[in-house]
Amino acid sequence: MEIRIRAFGDGSEIPKKYTCDGDNVSPEIELNLDPGYYMLLMNDPDAPSGTFTHWIIYNIPGETKILKENIEKKPDLGVIMQGDNDFGHPGYGGPCPPKGHGYHHYHFNLYRTDKIIERLNPESVYSIVDKLQPVAHYMGIYKRD
């Protein structure tokens, strides 16, 4: 299973377009998955207040090949759902580290859930994720001067 983001390489800098300094849109994500259901969690463990959740997107069917750029910021996308991020809104919230805080690492972890999940928020997502191992991982970095 694999995640690929063409807009930036694994471990490289996230373009401004996908951050609070740009258009703040989700990047296109290519997926290579087995049958089942999946959850993608994007977080920043370098946030001053502790791990900050930027995106919770789940109930992704295994046959999904692409999560398109600029996914609408609403909870219900049909089968696929989005939880509230730590900004307090559903959908993607791009990197926005404090100015002068140096590079933050943004982890995109993919988890296999095997079944449809009820509505999630940042508090409840970790009760599920803590029981699972990521099946794929991608990471980008970003800083604000």
Explain what the structure shows:
There is one protein chain. The chain is globular. With 145 residues, the protein is mainly β. It contains one helix and eight strands, in the order E-E-E-E-E-E-E-H-E. The protein has one helix spanning 122-129; strands at 2-4, 29-32, 37-44, 52-61, 66-67, 81-82, 104-112, 136-142. The chain has one domain (2-142): PEBP-like (Phosphatidylethanolamine-binding Protein, Alpha-Beta Complex). Strands 6-4-3-7-8 form a five-stranded antiparallel beta sheet, with helices on one face. The protein has a three-stranded antiparallel beta sheet with strand order 1-2-5, with no helix packed on it. Strand 3 and strand 4 form a beta hairpin.
List the helices and strands and how they pair.
Blueprint: E1 2-4, E2 29-32, E3 37-44, E4 52-61, E5 66-67, E6 81-82, E7 104-112, H1 122-129, E8 136-142
Antiparallel strand pairs: 1-2, 2-5, 3-4, 3-7, 4-6, 7-8
Structural class by helix and strand composition: mainly beta
Rg over CA atoms? 14 Å
Q: Note the gap between the termini.
A: 36 Å
Determine the fraction of residues in helical runs and give it as a percent range: under 10%
What is the CATH third-level topology name? Phosphatidylethanolamine-binding Protein
Q: At the first level of CATH, what is the class?
A: Alpha Beta
Shape: globular
Mean pLDDT over all positions: 94
pLDDT < 50 stretches: none
Neighbour order of strands in the largest sheet: 6-4-3-7-8
The sequence of SSEs as H and E is EEEEEEEHE
% residues in beta strands: 25-35%
CATH superfamily: PEBP-like
Instruction: Count every helix, treating DSSP H or I runs of 4 or more residues as helices.
Output: 1
Q: Please give the domain count.
A: 1
**Structure summary, number of beta strands:** 8
CATH architecture: Alpha-Beta Complex
Main sheet: strands, sense, barrel:
5 strands, antiparallel
Pfam family, one: PBP
Protein name: ATP/GTP binding protein
